[in-house]
Amino acid sequence: MTLVTSPAGYGKTTLVSDWLAHCDTPSTWLTADSDDNTPRRFFEVLLASICTLFPDSCPNFRLLVEAANQPPVSILADVLANDIEQIPQRFILAIDDYHLIENKSVHDLLSQLLKNPLSKLHLVIISPRAPFLPLTLLRANNDINEIRANELLFSAAEATTFLECAQGGEIDPETVSSRMEQTKGWIAGLQLAASTNRRHSDVVDQSAPVESGTKTEATEWREILTNREYDILLLLEQRLSDKEIADQICISTDTVKSHTKNIRGKLGVKSRRDAVAKAIALKILSPG
User: Fold this and answer.
1) Is the pLDDT of residue 212 over 90?
2) How far is the C-alpha of 100 from the C-alpha of 87, rounded, in Å?
3) What is the third-level CATH fold of 2-152?
4) Is 226 or 217 the better-scoring residue by pLDDT?
C-alpha cells in the first residue's frame, strides 16, 4: 500500500496521477465522495473501478454486492480478495479523497484486504489526513510506503526549475529565495506566484492605446483548481448557499464544503467571499 497525506494544495493528487501515467502497471482511479458512505454504494463504485480495467472480473463479489441482503463485511472481504487474486495481472487502485469516507464497514473491508496483502493489488490512498486503516500493522510489517506533506514541499532547486518552466525564462536566486520564504515550498503558492509574475510581465503600458478586444493575460484557472472546484467557485461568486450549490450540480452539501475548503486553501484565503475576491484579482473570475 502507498499512503499520500497532506493538506490541500500540496499536489498529492497531481503527484499520484503523474506517477500512474508513467507507470507500466495498469491502474484505475476512484475519487471518493461523501455520497459513497454506505457499504453498498462504496462497494458498487469499487467494483466499477476494477471492472474498467478488467471487465467481468470479481463475479462472486458482484453477486454479493447486488444481493438484497449483503453478508457480513468479513465474508465480502474474503470473496473480494479471492476474486482479485484471479485477475490475470497485478494492478494499482488509487482512491482519492478517502477522508470523505466515514462508514466503518468500508474501513473494515479495506482493512481486512490490507492485513493480508494481495499479490495482484497495490492500493494507493490519497487523503489530507491518516485514514482509519491498520497503519501500525502495515508499518510493522513494512507493507506501506508513506508520503507526507514535508516530502511534497519543493526544495529551492525544484522551485527554481518549476518557476523557470512556468515563466519561460531564467529566475534569479533572489527571486527564488523570496518565493521560498513566502511559500515554504508549497506548490499551490508557487503556482500563484508564477501566475502573478507572468501576468505582471505581460501588462501593457497603460498610456498606450489598446486595440479593441486586447486583454492582459489572466491566470489560467486549471493551473490551480480542478474542474469541479472551478464550477463551485463560479457558484460562490453568485453567493449561493451550500445547499443551493449541491442541488445545482447534483452533489452532497458535505462535498460542496470539502471543495470550498480546498478552494480557500489553494487561494490562501479564509472565507468564501475572500476566495471570490482573490479569484477576481487573479483574473480567474471576471469582475461583475
Assistant:
1) no
2) 28
3) Rossmann fold (3.40.50)
4) 226
| DSSP label at residue 205 | P
pTM of the model: 0.66
pLDDT at 210: 38
Whether the pLDDT of residue 79 is over 70: the answer is yes
Closest CA relative to residue 121, chosen from 27, 3, 20: 27
3-class DSSP state of 31: strand
Burial of 15 (0-12, 13-18, 19+ CB in 10 A): middle
CATH of domain 156-204+215-281: 1.10.10.10
CATH 1.10.10.10 residue ranges for the chain: 156-204+215-281
CA 135, 137, 152, 97 torsion-angle sign: negative
Query: What are the residues whose beta carbons fall under 8 Å from the beta carbon of 239, sequence distance 6 or more?
Result: none
Alpha-carbon distance of 9 to 190, in angstroms, equals: 10
User: How high is the pLDDT of residue 288?
Assistant: 63
Every domain of the chain with CATH number 3.40.50.300 lies at 2-152
Q: Are the beta carbons of 238 and 279 closer than 8 angstroms? A: no
Dihedrals phi, psi of 147, to nearest 5 degrees: -120, 120
Q: How many residues does the chain have?
A: 288
Local structure of residue 57 (DSSP, 8 states): -
Query: CA-to-CA distance for 278 and 186, rounded, in angstroms?
Result: 18
Read off the DSSP letter of residue 19: H
User: What distance in Å separates the CA atoms of residue 274 and residue 81, rounded to the nearest whole number?
Assistant: 47
Q: Greater confidence, 266 or 91?
A: 91
User: In angstroms, what CA-CA distances link 151 with 135, 158, 190, 259?
Assistant: 19, 12, 16, 24
